[in-house]
Each structure stands twice: as structure tokens, then as C-alpha cells.
Design brief:
Layout (H helix, E strand, L loop, with lengths): L1 E3 L3 E4 L1 H13 L5 E6 L5 E4 L4 E2 L5 E4 L7 E2 H9 L1
Parallel strand pairs: 1-3
Antiparallel strand pairs: 2-6, 3-4, 4-7, 5-6
GO biological process, one term: DNA recombination
Cofactor: Mg(2+)
Protein name: Archaeal holliday junction resolvase
Length: 79
Amino acid sequence: MKSSKNDHIYIRSEQVEELVHFSHGFGATPIVVAKFTWKPYKVFDIIELETTDSGTYAIHKKNIDKQFNLNDYITNLRG
């Protein structure tokens, strides 16, 4: 889970790689949950993260409305 008061969140590539490796070890889908001030928790699939020129990953506040709320995501998992 990453949070920010700014309009973006940056995640180091090493963190994403470790998350992918860990998740695949359990047969799970790697996701990142992002929280911006005054917005609900949102779920991002790893493939939806933007890559910056420096190789880090970015989540921009302007893109969060397209994502599932965390509660909705969990509800969908339960069926």
C-alpha cells in the first residue's frame, strides 16, 4: 500500500520486482493499493503502472477514477 498527499506516487522498480516474485510464488496476482488524500483506496494491477524515464513506476492521481475501490475489489474476489 502506498499513500501520498501529492498528485503522484513513485515506486522503486526493485519493490515492484519483489512484489511480482513474491506474488507469483503463491500463484497470486500482484497488485498495488494506492491512497491519495481525500480519495478512497484504489487497486492497481502491476501492468497498469506507468514506467518513468528513470525506471521507477508511477501512479498519478488523475488516473485513479478508472480503478476499483479496494472494498469493491475484495467483494469481487469473494464472488
